[in-house]
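Moderator note: this is an archived Q&A kept for reference. The question asked for a predicted structure of one protein chain; the sequence and the answer are reproduced below.
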Amino acid sequence: MVRSGKPESSHRAAVKGARAARVQRSKAIRDQKRAALLKEKRSSIGSSSAPRVIVSVLVGLSSSANVRPLAADLLTFAEGGDGKLESSTVASPTYKLRTTVLQAPYGDLTSCMELAKVADLLAFVLSANSLYSCDSSSPIDEFGSQCLSVFRAMGLPSTAVFIRDLPPDGKSRQELKKAATSFLSAELPEDSKFYFADTKDDLHKFMWLFKEQHLSSPHWRNQRPYVMSEKTSIKPDDNTGLCTLLVSGYLRAHNLSVNQLVHVSGAGDFQLGQIDVLRDPCPLSERKRSDAMETEDDGNQIVNTFVPDPSNQEPLLVENVPDPLAGEQTWPTEAEMEEAEINNKQRKLVKRKLPRGTSEYQAAWIVDDTDEEGDSDNDSQADSGMVIDDRGHSDQGSDGSDIDAVSHFTEKFDEETVGGTEMADDENLTREQIEAEIKKIKEANADDEEFPDEVETPLDVPAKKRFAKYRGLKSFRTSSWDPKESLPPEYARIFAFDNFTRTQKHVLAKITELDGGTVDCARLGSYVRLHVKNVPTDVASKLCHPSRRIPVVVSGLLQHESKMSVLHFSIKKHDSYEAPIKSKEPLVFNVGFRQFTARPLFSSDNINCNKHKMERFLHHGRFSVASVYAPICFPPLPLIVLKNRDGDQPAIAAVGSLKSVDPDRIILKKIVLTGYPQRVSKLKAIVRYMFHNPDDVRWFKPVELWTKHGRRGRIKETVGTHGAMKCIFNSSVQQHDTVCMSLYKRAYPKWPEQLYQI
């Protein structure tokens, strides 16, 4: 029998077609990557691109490394002349490159951080003399180590190391370069370059390599447009105390719309009154002069002007304005009045026992006795006890078995009397004697590790009044807690998202659309002058003061980023900071281009639970979550926390990153009330000094008890008049054990008095 060859040939053709499709798809992907790389290269080194920023940061001993001569040499050599430099930005016809060289002041950590945020190349200066120094084992001093630590936390751009003060011998120069590489390789990224920087030949080699180098930058910086000021000035307004801040510079990262809000670093968020596109003051070639519309007195030619559209301009909305009448009771509707009338008729139908001769008016003033016969004296949990939330409790393997064991011995415990008359000795104790007795018991139990959440019940204030905001939880992990319950007044001033992830995706998509459009927006790489309106005059004066050593950075804000909300940061205490950091302590937060004051609330991060325990201090060696009231930001963003010190530079307190924006995150403050067994009989014990009156015992009766030795139990009844109570546990209790009760309340961060420092 002869088989036909058609099926085999068709299979071979299908395989060949699939292979060709894969090859074609791979070629298309390569072409797209090549086109994107060429576009990025043209935009970064082309004649229409913004100048590359070299920030020289001193690393090493201040007496050994001198940055000022190197910055002057770089600018002079790039310009190709020996004249006096008037600006930190020069255009080099030889290298076809525009370069901005900025010098970071040694010892000023805040200025170094601000310059590193906008640097395209972060250049560290190392003196060869420090490699010969015997004073220290490393050429990096304490301030240099702090800078490196902060820069790594912020995200390093491309880095380079300039080696100065080299000997003329070529062999010695190479040996010193190897020594510097071995010292700094562990501190810097793997692609960091090392350059000699003593002679003109060394600078010439660096400039050629720098021109062709592919520069990397942190991801967070590429999400927002920003302008680093070349010139700043003030234009007074008619309004008292306000002015217009004029900031001129090159636009970087993205196009900037005149309808966007902008953030001035350290000053706050503002609206734009106008954007002027000016002629490039440092062109690589003299061209396009005919595009100028008009020439100003200072020589700047305006090429284009953008004015905001009132219907499309984003409003400067910082806080939500609460309605004071939102919670007021309104006039009842007809349906509500009919329902109330029906309820009144039903109430009249109930027969009441009244004295003979009582009128209807007199009967309305007689209060019904709600206590039924047979009820014990306030022993009902529903009538007189604290409400404990046990909904959703599913930990039967851990807690349920303990409670079952407790209920198993209830009947036997009721039949016995444990120390019924033992409390007679405590009935006549004075307040001073009770305090002395509690102190004596605490000193006797001093060998036991003290729980940090322990608090003492006051003698002069009832516990149910002192701890009225607290409640008990059947299970911390599974018990429910309504995130909208009993919110503070500050929550009426903030904003929240229904779906934060979806909103972030929508906002970032708008930035991509803006880059493709040309309406009402300045193009990437153009030289612009921003008219930032309604800036306080005193703030603008500080920004434009001649003594200011760093440029003003104006960054474009994404949608919603001016509004206040609750931000959560993953944070870790810095290794160099030894002082304790307490919750709600004022700290300076550096988040991306923003710098503001906040009073964070620290908490743990529970993965499998929607409730998180508050931490009173930020601990060493592990990450916590810091929750603050702050303007909305979209992650990823780095966090640098500084602590101001009187008369000294701020210290690095912590580092971290933005985690989420969520006002509904539940943070619970835990307290532990403690008592001490006085009489113990197997599973039963009489506990004293947790409370000081019987009403408190009855109020907290529904809350579960536990001991430091792992026993669990509950309150049975009160004993005497001084707050002693009869308790039952799931196992034998030791006389030296401590009986505890856990209570929780929701905690919130503190609203900052002044958000921005300037």
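Archived answer notes: The radius of gyration is 36 Å.
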